[in-house]
Amino acid sequence: MNEILIAVIPVVVIGIICGAVLVIASKIMAVKEDERFPAVRECLPGANCGACGFAGCDGYAKALCESPDTPTNLCVPGADAVSRQLSEVLGVEFADVIEQVAVVHCAGDCTRTEDKVSYEGIESCAAAKLLYGGKGSCTYGCLGFGDCAKACPKEAICIENGIAHINTRLCIGCGICTRTCPNKIISLVPDVERVVVTCSNKDKGIKTKSVCSNGCIGCKKCERVCPSSAIKVVDNCAVIDYSKCPDCEDFGVCAKNCTTGCIQIADLRGQHRFGE
Amino acid sequence: MTKLIIILLSAVFINNYVLSRFLGICPFLGVSKKLDSATGMSIAVIFVMLMATAVTYPIQIFLLNPNDLGYLQTIVFILVIAALVQLVEIILKRYIPSLHKSLGVYLPLITTNCAVLGVTILNIDEGYSFLEAMVNSLGSGLGFFLAMVIFSGVRSTIEGRDIPKSFQGLPITLVAAAITSLSFLGFGGIIENLFA
């Protein structure tokens, strides 16, 4: 009995001392946290996608608590619902979120363009691009190995007929794929838009036409027919300025008149607007 | 002095905790994916090993040995090290937030790390003096650092390779770890002859 006590007592005493020291230390050296932080963090979806421009949801919540100037409408995946909650918690005015979806500016699938080489390397766009700009004859377009699909947190991207397709119903608009794509052909577009340019080729028209039947040849027909002059041909490729686009009086005229069909009418309604 | 250098070098190379004694394999495989996290983890381990030795050595000498309680060594050491790591975390959070931010994730992982416990117990078993024990802890920590940095390099090289499906992930990592530890066999017998 005595021997057991001799063993038990030191361990108990050490345990109590350690516990006491920890309790005292945590009381004395407690770090003050903003009491709004847990509430703010609770509003955010927790996808940690980085669409807001901060390091994950914790970073955004911290920035919201610390500086009142931080806009509450930066969370694209959370959309209006999150922005409304945030404005309630922080006591600021509600700011509308511009919901966005990702769009691939390439439609050069295997029916429209051809491979110039047979590639048997690492199955990754970044690796394939290092070798003569990829296996396709167009070096501006989709490389087709699905780096974006691997990076997508919502599995909204699939590779079909050699190019990436984005399911806008699943896309949360975080923009990770836009940063992943080595050719930078994916961009975020407000999900109210209905026309997209599906080509990124910056070569002269004759060269573009020789590699892909869908390519933008820079004929500027769309520039001329657009009633709100929202389309400009920059570097031999049409670019739509979406800020001028929404009030179009002759919707779809650009797509109807496109010589190669690279301007297309698309249904970009994302998950936030799908019910409308 | 020579003995201290021999202890230090043999702890880093010959008796490397990860690659020769196979202690601390969990963080070795878990945190070695990226160089910066491997470095952060290793620095935290060095820090905790030194602190743990400084605390557990007096407990063994002044409390356990005189009372003939050597058999309580393991449980007392675990208790003390766990409390110590928690205390260090609280202190860092209060006074050096930047260091806490970079080490904070790893500190709770180290609490029950077998490499830390192994260092403190082996220090006693080898019959080191306090100074020798501290030098041995430093060497063990540096050895851990070395193994982590080398292995994170190996892993980042493997990452870009086309690996057969059945070998992807953990299997190829374990094979690579085995080959890396084989290379450390070559250090056996070098240190003793350096000072002979």
Structure characterization notes:
The complex is a heterodimer of chains A (276) and B (196). In chain A, α2 packs across α3. In chain A, 33% of the residues lie in helices and 12% in strands. The termini of chain A are far apart. Chain A is built from 10 helices and 8 strands. In chain A, the strands form 4 sheets. Chain A has a two-stranded antiparallel ribbon. In chain A, strands 2-3 form a two-stranded antiparallel sheet. Chain A has a two-stranded antiparallel sheet with strand order 5-8. Chain A has helices spanning 2-28, 37-43, 56-66, 79-90, 125-130, 147-151, 176-180, 205-211, 221-225, 253-257, and strands spanning 100-104, 157-160, 163-166, 186-190, 195-197, 231-234, 237-240, 263-265. In chain A, a hairpin with a 2-residue loop joins β2 and β3 (163-166). Chain A is elongated and about 95 Å long. Chain B has helices at residues 2-14, 25-30, 35-64, 73-95, 97-103, 107-110, 114-125, 130-159, 170-185, 190-194. In chain B, α4 crosses α5 (97-103) and α8 (130-159) crosses α9 (170-185). The two termini of chain B are 14 Å apart. Chain A binds chain B through residues 6-7, 10-11, 14-15, 18-19, 21-22, 25-26, 29-31, 121-123, 127, and chain B through 59, 63-64, 67, 69, 71-72, 75-76, 79-80, 83, 86-87, 90-91, 93-95, 97, 160-162.
Topology:
The complex is a heterodimer of chains A (276) and B (196).
Chain A: H1 2-28, H2 37-43, H3 56-66, H4 79-90, E1 100-104, H5 125-130, H6 147-151, E2 157-160, E3 163-166, H7 176-180, E4 186-190, E5 195-197, H8 205-211, H9 221-225, E6 231-234, E7 237-240, H10 253-257, E8 263-265
Antiparallel strand pairs in A: 1-4, 2-3, 5-8, 6-7
Helix pairs in contact in A: 2-3
Chain B: H1 2-14, H2 25-30, H3 35-64, H4 73-95, H5 97-103, H6 107-110, H7 114-125, H8 130-159, H9 170-185, H10 190-194
Helix pairs in contact in B: 1-8, 3-4, 3-7, 3-8, 4-5, 4-7, 7-8, 8-9
Q: How would you summarize what this structure contains?
A:
By secondary structure, chain A is of the alpha+beta class. Chain A contains ten helices and eight strands.
